[in-house]
């Protein structure tokens, strides 16, 4: 008599466990089933495309939701399902999904991950499914960021220059400087900094430690026509006159006292300039958004200029470009549908992206598309925004990609700079040490000849 009761009990337990596991498999907003990249159809017969993007802010989320809803309503064959992932969980979630084979069909990816992801088959080329004209619409330097062996593995959404010169016009006037004329050479930057340094106000804020030098100096290295490693990654190329000139300039600026010995904040924070602790600050274009959102009453007192160069020629790289793209997962069962959505959103109607740059980023980020820039130039707000115009025309077209070589290479340069600035080491000796560090890395990691772009 006990066996039927026991059997009924076990069946009940199994049913509960089954229900719990089913509930954990994931549901969408209204309890609708959320398909992984391998699933094909939802209950209405539409092909489901899962799309992940990191959380940037409320305005970004609203833009994504509005446009994905519009796409879903524009046709009856595909349903794009959006998941906005908290920024601090993004890397962990995407790496875990890749390992488990559960990545979404579409995901955002930054530029410096594109080439290796393409080489490893983690993402698919879009060319087979897209109009060739959309690639011609990209600025040539940015198109190269997403290209491997003649194929395009992502479509760029935005670009962010790592370095722009921001300055306080009121402090310029107090120092007897023309508030409409920023320094254009390295020598002028130091000269201006000395005139602007007064009391507790420093002349300039910029990167202030090795980790920041490692990435903020990519643009400066391109400015002098060098990088720390050869194109084929077979040897260090850091001991040369242009690199010596760059290290010497940075050390001269530091020793002159125009920059604080202890940084007043992280490189990405414009607060030191906004609160009058410094008169000039080198920061990324994202600072425009910070200024417009947090310091609206200060905007008339802010000047924006191209970062000064070694020789005053500003038709050369002064920044590296970071930014985001949309990619198709290498295991997606629906690459055609995914590519069509990406083309519709990022490469179709220019007004979609115009709204993004105007309303969401406040012109703190920049388009990779020539046609979008043309529309922005005719737009009342875009045409009358001098900061957007200057950066779009004088910084972005000359900017370089963030390098894809190992971070250890960048840190060898950065620690060489620190040895000169903080320890007083001879420039030549500091660079020779960096040269050995890079060559040791190449040897120990069989790194020579592994650049997928060469």
From TrEMBL:
Coiled coil: is it a keyword of this entry?
A: yes
List where this protein forms a coiled coil: 417-444
InterPro entries, A to Z: Bact_solute-bd_prot1, SBP
What are the start and end residues of every segment in region (Disordered)?
A: 27-46
* Source species, domain of life: Bacteria
**What are the record keywords, sorted?**
Coiled coil, Signal
| Signal peptide extent | 1-22
Question: Mind telling me which PANTHER family this protein's record contains?
Answer: ARABINOSE-BINDING PROTEIN-RELATED (PTHR43649), DIACETYLCHITOBIOSE BINDING PROTEIN DASA (PTHR43649:SF12)
Name of protein: ABC transporter substrate-binding protein
Which species is this UniProt entry from? Bacillus yapensis
Top-level taxonomy: Bacteria, Bacillati, Bacillota, Bacilli, Bacillales
């Amino acid at each position: 008599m006990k066996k039927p009761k026991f059997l009924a009990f076990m069946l009940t337990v199994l049913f509960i466990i089954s229900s719990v596991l089913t509930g954990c498999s994931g549901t969408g907003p209204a309890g609708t089933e959320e398909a992984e990249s391998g699933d094909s159809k939802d209950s209405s017969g539409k092909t489901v495309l899962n799309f992940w993007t990191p959380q940037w802010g409320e305005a970004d989320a609203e833009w994504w939701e509005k446009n994905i809803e519009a796409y879903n309503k524009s046709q009856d064959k595909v349903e794009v399902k959006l998941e906005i992932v908290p920024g601090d969980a993004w890397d962990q979630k995407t790496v875990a999904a890749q390992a488990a084979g559960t990545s979404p069909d579409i995901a955002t990816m930054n530029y410096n991950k594109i080439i290796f992801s393409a080489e490893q088959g983690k993402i698919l080329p879009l060319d087979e499914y897209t109009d060739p004209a959309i690639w011609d619409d990209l600025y040539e330097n940015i198109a190269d960021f997403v290209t491997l062996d003649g194929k395009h593995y992502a479509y760029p959404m935005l670009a962010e220059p790592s370095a722009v010169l921001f300055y306080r016009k009121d402090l310029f006037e107090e120092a007897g400087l023309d508030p409409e004329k920023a320094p254009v050479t390295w020598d002028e930057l130091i000269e201006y900094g000395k005139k602007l340094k007064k009391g507790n106000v420093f002349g300039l804020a910029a990167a202030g430690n090795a980790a920041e030098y490692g990435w903020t100096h990519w643009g400066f290295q391109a400015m002098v026509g060098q990088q720390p490693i050869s194109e084929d990654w077979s040897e260090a190329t850091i001991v040369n006159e242009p690199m010596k000139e760059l290290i010497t300039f940075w050390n001269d600026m530091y020793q002159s006292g125009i920059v604080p010995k202890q940084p007043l904040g992280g490189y990405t924070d414009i607060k030191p300039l906004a609160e009058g602790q410094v008169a000039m600050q080198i920061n990324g274009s994202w600072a425009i958004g910070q200024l417009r959102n947090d310091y609206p009453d200060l905007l008339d007192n802010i000047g924006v200029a191209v970062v000064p160069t070694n020789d005053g020629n500003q038709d050369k790289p002064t920044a590296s470009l970071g930014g985001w793209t949309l990619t198709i997962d290498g295991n997606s069962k629906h690459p055609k549908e995914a590519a069509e959505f990406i083309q519709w959103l990022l490469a179709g109607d220019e007004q979609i992206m115009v709204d993004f740059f105007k309303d969401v980023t406040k012109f703190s980020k920049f388009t990779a598309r020539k046609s979008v820039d043309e529309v922005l130039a005719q737009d009342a707000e875009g045409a009358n925004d001098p900061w957007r115009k200057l950066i779009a025309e004088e910084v972005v077209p000359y900017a370089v990609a963030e390098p894809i070589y190992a971070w250890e290479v960048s840190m060898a340069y950065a620690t060489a700079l620190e040895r000169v600035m903080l320890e007083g080491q001879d420039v030549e000796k500091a660079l020779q040490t960096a040269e050995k560090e890079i060559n040791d890395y190449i040897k120990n990691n069989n790194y020579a000849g592994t650049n997928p772009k060469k």
